[in-house]
Description:
It is a single chain. The mean pLDDT is about 95. The relative contact order is 0.12. The strands form three sheets. A four-stranded mixed beta sheet has the order 1-4-5-8. A four-stranded antiparallel beta sheet has the order 2-3-7-6, with no helix packed on it. It has eleven helices and ten strands. The protein is globular. It is α+β, with helices and mostly antiparallel strands and about 375 residues long.
Amino acid sequence: xxxxxxxxxxxxxxxxxxxxxxxxxxxxxxxxxxxxxxxxxxxxxxxxxxxxxxxxxxxxxxxxxxxxxxxxxxxxxxxxxxxxxxxxxxxxxxxxxxxxxxxxxxxxxxxxxxxxxxxxxxxxxxxxxxxxxxxxxxxxxxxxxxxxxxxxxxxxxxxxxxxxxxxxxxxxxxxxxxxxxxxxxxxxxxxxxxxxxxxxxxxxxxxxxxxxxxxxxxxxxxxxxxxxxxxxxxxxxxxxxxxxxxxxxxxxxxxxxxxxxxxxxxxxxxxxxxxxxxxxxxxxxxxxxxxxxxxxxxxxxxxxxxxxxxxxxxxxxxxxxxxxxxxxxxxxxxxxxxxxxxxxxxxxxxxxxxxxxxxxxxxxxxxxxxxxxxxxxxxxxx
Length: 382
């Protein structure tokens, strides 16, 4: 990571986070992946560094960091394990949404335990039959005697089953985005259950399950914001979530690049170190250049989000699109540079490739990112 443009506080933040990633994530990443183990004890340790409420205001119990700080945190965490860093990004999205859109009582009730990661958080938007068409969701919430009754199924939910707190998007009104509201659901609410842990290509160190709501009855004060605000709240959360996943792609790819440098320096072919081969040097140069360009775009988008720039959603989509495509491509090239060893699990490169592949799909597929960018370009021209 280029550090010449960082402030002293950001340098200290990166150093502390890197120590955590190297001590608590990297040594176990391959084993967690193989065993499909979700290291909740390690998440508790991360909370001790303030990583459970990265963007939550200090008065609400969080670290009060900016988005520009946050992308440094998640890139550095992902250098140790993209799967765990990805979950931490989602957990922090949930905590930020409560801090930003919740009322005082909701912040007081939910945030202290989320920031301490005594409770984990999950984000529930996607459904089995809607996919990228989030505004067409079918989960319903019906107002009844001072409560809302939620019925429906959410798909591909990271942390499901292990998380205590779920932000659930459900339809309270008309079809389309204006009829959607956001709710806080507790794991212990009657009627809430979970599907089996999905068998996945990557991200095996965190659970992914359906969230099933069978007439889950929640008090009316669990409504986040107002009725009809849900789609706006969901998209607001995703702007930051996309930056987190973009940063995780950079971190995983950076580790793959660094491992390739070490491998090529150590191996010989035809009497010479592989690192002396100009063709391989050019490949490494391209990988480093592309990662640096992607990091600059992620930082630009993060700074735009921090200052409330109207173009921030478009820039976040650009950053997510470019950084996740770049990260996956760099990791795949790193595997190729390792030859047959890259295909072996013990080297950890194939795990990074598998973990980064899903980044092009979640938090909005990269095809949807292109739609967001294109709409921003063509708005007002029709």
